[in-house]
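Figure 6 in text form: structure in, sequence out.
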């Protein structure tokens, strides 16, 4: 079986592949070259929308999906190594790693749940995990000319080790990876439109195209309105209870608020040099804190666990209102959001063995929808503020390179209302989630 030997390499990959390559491709995109900008846009778009493609399938086999994710990720890392000498290889590397980042975490979750049902042990060597994590973080700190080969080489070694130590390619079922009844069903169209809109939005910001940015925002608002109009009808076919869908959606929104808006705001107010101390470090500490303390918190609070998570998230979002408290705010948000994810994973893992694949996909897809909706609404809010302040759209494109010392007044007029609008919107969503959860508890 898959986890007979060691799960450590897969643990590190599934918990870092959505973040560390993101930071690397983001740093490359600041070079202002077209290939670097498109590489980041491709990685991010495939990472965020790949799970929607999996939902178009009528049958999905977890071991085969995990093997495919490892194979695609390993190929992406290998091509990424070649990009050090051949820049054109950066685009396929970004695409392959983006697909792997989208598929591997849910595939790993599916297989771990199946392994638990068969009572086979999961082995994680935490010392080995910390070593691998240190290697990846060290690769990010290498000089620019060595960073790519260091990072891609580390991931390639991890993918090879994951395939070997976890026996990923052993005992695969003799049936296809995935099956589809029809080519163009509703989920595929949703995936296709989200892919185009998100790629357009990201590419527009990187290549500084006003027309493409406005097209992406307009297209999203149209799609968002259509989804809202049909929400009542679609909710009747939901396989998950309302409170579970709402809380999963909220987790996606919070994750995007923490990482995307947190990065934009900190960069604009304090400069890009503050990202490590004000965003990335609090984010990582919150994740590790939840990993080690989440079980104890769940044991002590029990029935009050979810309300505590939501109230903790509210407190963290409120702390974001003070610039001096931003690191504490993002640590608190990261901690409680990771704790909420642990609780959600347990809720989805109660599925029957034959429903594990679709349950896991539902969780990741709903989270992605929350993240995408927040991202587009945030960009729409920033767009409206720019128009209200009579600022050119180019100011939004240049924000990532702005510091708090050279354009303070413009940043104040732009980011302060965006901050309060974001805080108000997220707080309303959290209050709504708490109300829905308490109502579900009363009905029981």
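Output sequence:
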């Amino acid at each position: 079986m898959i986890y007979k030997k060691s799960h450590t390499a897969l643990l590190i990959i599934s918990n870092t592949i959505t973040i560390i390559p993101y930071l690397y491709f983001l740093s490359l995109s600041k070079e202002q070259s077209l290939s670097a900008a498109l590489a980041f846009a491709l990685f991010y778009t495939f990472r965020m929308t790949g799970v929607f493609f999996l939902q178009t399938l009528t049958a999905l086999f977890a071991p085969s999906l995990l093997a495919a994710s490892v194979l695609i990720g390993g190929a992406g890392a290998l091509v990424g190594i070649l990009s050090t000498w051949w820049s054109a290889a950066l685009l396929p590397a970004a695409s392959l790693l983006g697909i792997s980042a989208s598929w591997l975490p849910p595939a790993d979750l599916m297989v771990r749940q199946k392994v638990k049902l068969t009572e086979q042990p999961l082995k994680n060597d935490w010392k080995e995990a910390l070593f691998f994590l240190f290697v990846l973080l060290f690769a990010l700190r290498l000089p620019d000319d060595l960073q790519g080969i260091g990072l891609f080489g580390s991931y390639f070694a991890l993918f090879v080790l994951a395939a070997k130590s976890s026996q990923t390619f052993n005992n695969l079922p003799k049936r296809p990876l995935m099956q589809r009844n029809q080519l163009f069903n509703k989920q595929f169209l949703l995936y296709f439109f989200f892919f185009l809109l998100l790629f357009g939005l990201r590419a527009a910001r990187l290549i500084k195209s006003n027309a493409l940015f406005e097209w992406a925002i307009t297209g999203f608002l149209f799609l968002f309105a259509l989804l809202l109009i049909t929400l009542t009808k679609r909710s009747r076919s939901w396989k998950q209870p309302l409170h579970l869908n709402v809380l999963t959606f909220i987790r996606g929104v919070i994750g995007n608020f923490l990482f995307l808006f947190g990065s934009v705001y900190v960069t604009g107010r304090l400069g890009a040099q503050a990202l490590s101390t004000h965003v990335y470090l609090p984010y990582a500490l919150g994740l590790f804190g939840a990993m080690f303390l989440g079980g104890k918190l769940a044991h002590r609070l029990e029935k009050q666990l979810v309300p505590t998570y939501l109230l903790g998230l509210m407190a963290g979002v409120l702390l974001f209102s003070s610039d001096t408290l931003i690191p504490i705010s993002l640590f608190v948000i990261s901690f409680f959001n990771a704790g909420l994810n642990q609780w959600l994973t347990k809720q989805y893992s109660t599925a029957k063995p034959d429903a594990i694949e679709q349950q896991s996909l539902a969780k990741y897809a709903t989270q992605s929808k929350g993240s995408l909706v927040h991202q587009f609404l945030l960009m729409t809010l920033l767009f409206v503020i720019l128009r209200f302040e009579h600022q050119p759209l180019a100011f939004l494109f240049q924000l990532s390179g702005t510091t708090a010392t050279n354009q303070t007044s413009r940043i104040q007029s732009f980011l302060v209302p965006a901050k309060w609008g974001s805080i108000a919107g997220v707080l309303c969503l959290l209050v709504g989630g708490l109300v829905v959860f308490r109502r579900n508890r009363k009905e029981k």
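Caption detail: The domain at 238-444 is CATH 1.20.1250 (Growth Hormone; Chain: A;).
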